[in-house]
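Q: I'm building a small set of examples for a reading group on sequence design. Run inverse folding on the following structure and report the sequence directly after it, with nothing in between.
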C-alpha cells in the first residue's frame, strides 16, 4: 500500500471533477446497463491488496455511472437536496482532518465549527440563544433526539428519571401525532418505547395539516409531534396554536421540520410559522434544503438541559467542564464532523442566500405545478413549499409514465399515494435547478404522457 496521500487525493479529485463535469448530461437515473455494471464490484476479497489508483479507477468506472444524479438539477425524488460546491470541498478538507467532534478533547476545530454553525441556525430560526443544538445523521435521528428530550422533560416533571429507571412503571405519556406523521417519527417513537400504535392520530385537512380543533385535551404528560413540511404536500401544522395550548398545561411540542422549517426564512411564509418558537424541540436536515452533502440532521431544543439530560455520557477519560459537548447532545459518541459543511454553506450563502435558495425552489415548484396542469395533470396539493403532488390516468398508466420518464434520463421523481389517489411526487430541493430545467423536465413528462395515454 502506498503511504502518500498526495497522489491518491489528486487522482480522486480528477475523477470527481470528471464525474461532476458529466452530471449535466448524465441520465438522471442510471440506465439498466449501468446498474448491471455494478456486478463489476462482485470480486473475491483480494488476498493481496490492489493498488489505490486501480481501486479508485474501479470506483469511478463502475460506481459513477450507476449513481442517481442527485447533485444535478433535474433530480426531484423524495426530498433530496443537491450539494453546494463549497460544501463538497469543505467535506474533503474535513475528511482529510478525520476528526470526531465528541468533545473539545477530541477535536477543538470540529467542536468550534459545530458550535458556530449551531449558533447561526438558532439565529436563522429565531430561537433563544440558550437553545441546545446537536448534529445527527439525519432528521430520523434528530426527531429521535428531540423526542427523547421531551420524554425526559415530561417524566422528570412527574418525578420520574427515565434515564435511570427506564420506562418500567413510569407514568404513562400520551403521544399525539398527525395522521400524516412521517414514518421516521413513528420509528423514533417505537425506539423510545412509546410504540407506533399506542398514539393518538389527529385528522388532517385536505393538504395534510393537522386540524387544530381535533387535537385531544393536552396535559403535563402529553408529547405532541407536529410537522413543518408534509413529505408529500409540504403542509405545515398549526404549530403556534398547538404550542400555545401546550404551554398552558406543560405538554411538550416537537416539530419535525426536516425540510419545511427552512421556509421560516421567507417573508412570504410568515403566516405558517407564527408562534412556532413556542414549541420545545425541532428536528431538521442540512442534507435536504440547505444542500450540504449527506449526511447531516440537526436537533434544536429550547431547554438545552433536557437534551443534555437525555443524551449525556460521563467517563473518567473525559474532562467534566460542564460544557454541552456534542457527544452529550446526540446519541452518537464518535462520528464525523458534519458541522463543517453546515458552517461552510451558511457562511458562503449568508441569511439572504439561504432564503433566496428556498424561495427559488418554491417558485420552481409552482411553475412545475402550472406546467403539469397545462399538460393535463391534476395537481392534488396546495403548492405552498417545494412539493408537488399530481396525477393523471390510472395507477398503471401513471407507473408507465414514470418509467418512461425514468428511461429517458431527463429527470427523476417518485410515486406516492395521496389521500387514496396514486400520484407522482416532485420535490424541488436543489440549489441548481433553474426554470429551464423545469421546462426540460415538463417536456419529458409531456412526451411520456402522450406515448402512454395517446
Ligand atoms: C418530514 C420528514 N421527516 C423526517 C424525514 C427523515 O429524514 P432523514 O431521511 O434525513 O432521516 C424526512 C425525509 O424525507 C421527512 O421528509
Amino acid at each position: 500500500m502506498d503511504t502518500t496521500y498526495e497522489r491518491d487525493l489528486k487522482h480522486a479529485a480528477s475523477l470527481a471533477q470528471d464525474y461532476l463535469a458529466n452530471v449535466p448530461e448524465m441520465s438522471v437515473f442510471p440506465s439498466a446497463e449501468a446498474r448491471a455494471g455494478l456486478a463489476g464490484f462482485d470480486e473475491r476479497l483480494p488476498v493481496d491488496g490492489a493498488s489505490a489508483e486501480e481501486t479508485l479507477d474501479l470506483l469511478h468506472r463502475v460506481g459513477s455511472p450507476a449513481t442517481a444524479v442527485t447533485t444535478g438539477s433535474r433530480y426531484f425524488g423524495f426530498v433530496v437536496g443537491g450539494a453546494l460546491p463549497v460544501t463538497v470541498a469543505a467535506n474533503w478538507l474535513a475528511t482529510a482532518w478525520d476528526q470526531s467532534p465528541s468533545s473539545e478533547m477530541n477535536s477543538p476545530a470540529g467542536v468550534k465549527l459545530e458550535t458556530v454553525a449551531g449558533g447561526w441556525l438558532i439565529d436563522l430560526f429565531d430561537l433563544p440563544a440558550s437553545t441546545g443544538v446537536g448534529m445527527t445523521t439525519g432528521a430520523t435521528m434528530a426527531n429521535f433526539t428531540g423526542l427523547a428530550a421531551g420524554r425526559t422533560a415530561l417524566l422528570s416533571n412527574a418525578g420520574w428519571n427515565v434515564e435511570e429507571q427506564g420506562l418500567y412503571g413510569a407514568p404513562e405519556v400520551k403521544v399525539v401525532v398527525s395522521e400524516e406523521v412521517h414514518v421516521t417519527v413513528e420509528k423514533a417513537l417505537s425506539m423510545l418505547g412509546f410504540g407506533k400504535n399506542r398514539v393518538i392520530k389527529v385528522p388532517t385537512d385536505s393538504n395534510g395539516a393537522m386540524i387544530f380543533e381535533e387535537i385531544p385535551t393536552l396535559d403535563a404528560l402529553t408529547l405532541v409531534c407536529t410537522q413543518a413540511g408534509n413529505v408529500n404536500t409540504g403542509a405545515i401544522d398549526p404549530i403556534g396554536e398547538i404550542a400555545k395550548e401546550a404551554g398552558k398545561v406543560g405538554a411538550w411540542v416537537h416539530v419535525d421540520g426536516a425540510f419545511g422549517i427552512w421556509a421560516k426564512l421567507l417573508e412570504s411564509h410568515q403566516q405558517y410559522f407564527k408562534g412556532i418558537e413556542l414549541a420545545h424541540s425541532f428536528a431538521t436536515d442540512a442534507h435536504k434544503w440547505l444542500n450540504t452533502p449527506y449526511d447531516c440532521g440537526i436537533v434544536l431544543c429550547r431547554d438545552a438541559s433536557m437534551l443534555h439530560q437525555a443524551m449525556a455520557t460521563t467517563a473518567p477519560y473525559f474532562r467534566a467542564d460542564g460544557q454541552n459537548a456534542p457527544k452529550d447532545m446526540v446519541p452518537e459518541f464518535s462520528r464525523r464532523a458534519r458541522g463543517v459543511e453546515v458552517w461552510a454553506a451558511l457562511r458562503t450563502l449568508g441569511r439572504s442566500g439561504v432564503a433566496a435558495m428556498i424561495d427559488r425552489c418554491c417558485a420552481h415548484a409552482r411553475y412545475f405545478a402550472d406546467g403539469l396542469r397545462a399538460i393535463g395533470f391534476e395537481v392534488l396539493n396546495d403548492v405552498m413549499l417545494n412539493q408537488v403532488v399530481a396525477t393523471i390516468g390510472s395507477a398503471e398508466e401513471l407507473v408507465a409514465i414514470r418509467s418512461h420518464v425514468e428511461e429517458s434520463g431527463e429527470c427523476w421523481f417518485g410515486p406516492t399515494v395521496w389521500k387514496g389517489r396514486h400520484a407522482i411526487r416532485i420535490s424541488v430541493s436543489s440549489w441548481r435547478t433553474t426554470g429551464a430545467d423545469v421546462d426540460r423536465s415538463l417536456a419529458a413528462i409531456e412526451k411520456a404522457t402522450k406515448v402512454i395515454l395517446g
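The domain at 90-345 is CATH 3.40.640.10 (Aspartate Aminotransferase; domain 2).
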